[in-house]
Design a protein that fits this description.
With 313 residues, this protein is α/β, with parallel strands linked by helices. It is built from twelve helices and 13 strands. The structure holds zinc ion (2 copies).
């Protein structure tokens, strides 16, 4: 319930595009050094007119963009968030479902096509290097034509793909420590969550996961947990319409997290703010924010934010 004008402004600002910027303008608060912007919040590879783009999450630390996952549309969403694609310095892939990696090569290519020097370090489970190599052979003709015809630098050495197959520290620099935790996303074994510890803020991105107690441990004390979520009544409605979706229901139940369990994880982790993202289904506009949050709230008493594309937290 909105009690006064300040609360009204706060609640509307928290759902506005670029809310951080708006809050700064409205309340004169300094902008955070570590910013979190949801670029795409729809789970799954289907591209539709849902108002949600495929998964991608942006963390800006001292203005340096760190991208977690780059599903289809990530380049466009970055631009909409006001970040030039050739500024991206790091990409982290949680797992190799295509809604999380489809633009790994293309986003790098788009950064290269701007024509200024770039270097991107990509991190992810095994398969990342081959994906980059395969992308470069897919675009071999174009790349080699432009090198000769337009005097472009060869992009291929500028993308460094680093693979890991165990949880641990992935990257450490003056601004941030990034670590990973194995999560449960069968049948994929190499599926990870990422944690960013910056001096002013710690943020955990769950990736795709079923209920994973080890994720709660990993997210202990973080300021923000961005967690995936699945709304079962909508899946059941789908199965009623399409009985052949029964198998899909089993897969979804085994590999994603129901709202009540998302709340449990956030409570076990003791995070301040829980952000729901990677909505399954992400293209059913009839599900309200309240429906997404209701069961989460039963298990978690902190701040719950129902994510939207381009929302800054
Ligand atoms: Zn996914
Ligand atoms: Zn997945």
């Amino acid at each position: 319930m909105v009690h006064n004008r300040r609360e009204f402004l706060l609640s509307s600002a928290s759902f506005a595009v670029g809310a951080g910027l708006l809050q700064e303008r409205v309340f004169g608060q300094p902008q955070k050094k570590t910013r979190l912007i949801l670029l795409g919040t729809k789970g799954g590879p289907r591209v539709g007119e849902s108002g949600r783009s495929n998964p991608s999450t942006l963390i800006l630390i001292n203005e340096v963009p760190y991208l977690v996952d780059c599903g289809y549309g990530a380049t466009k969403q970055l631009l909409l968030a006001g970040v030039a694609v050739n500024r991206v310095r790091y990409i982290f892939i949680t797992h190799h479902h295509s809604d999380h990696n489809l633009e790994y090569g293309p986003l790098f290519y788009n950064a290269w096509s701007v024509g200024q020097p770039i270097k991107i370090d990509g991190y992810g489970p095994p398969g990342l290097k081959k994906m980059a190599d395969d992308f470069f052979s897919y675009q071999k003709f174009d790349i080699e034509t432009r090198i000769v015809d337009e005097g472009r630098t060869d992009p291929r050495p500028l993308l460094a793909s680093h693979e890991f197959d165990k949880p641990g520290v992935i990257l450490e620099n003056d601004d941030v420590k990034v670590s990973s935790c194995r999560v449960r996303h069968p049948p994929i074994e190499q599926a990870y969550a990422y944690r960013f510890d910056a001096p002013d803020r710690s943020i955990v991105i769950s990736g795709d996961t079923a209920y994973s107690p080890e994720l709660a441990q990993f997210a202990k004390g973080a300021d923000v947990l961005v967690h995936e979520v699945m709304y079962l009544p909508a899946i059941d409605a789908l199965v009623r319409r399409l009985p052949e979706a029964k198998r899909l229901r089993e897969h979804l139940l085994a590999s994603h997290t129901l709202p009540a369990d998302v709340g449990k994880i956030a409570t076990q982790a003791g995070v301040k703010t829980l952000v729901l993202s990677h909505f399954v289904p992400g293209d059913d506009r009839s599900i309200t924010d309240e429906q997404w949050a209701a069961d989460v709230r039963k298990g978690f008493k902190g701040q719950i934010i129902v994510g939207r594309d381009l929302l800054e937290i």
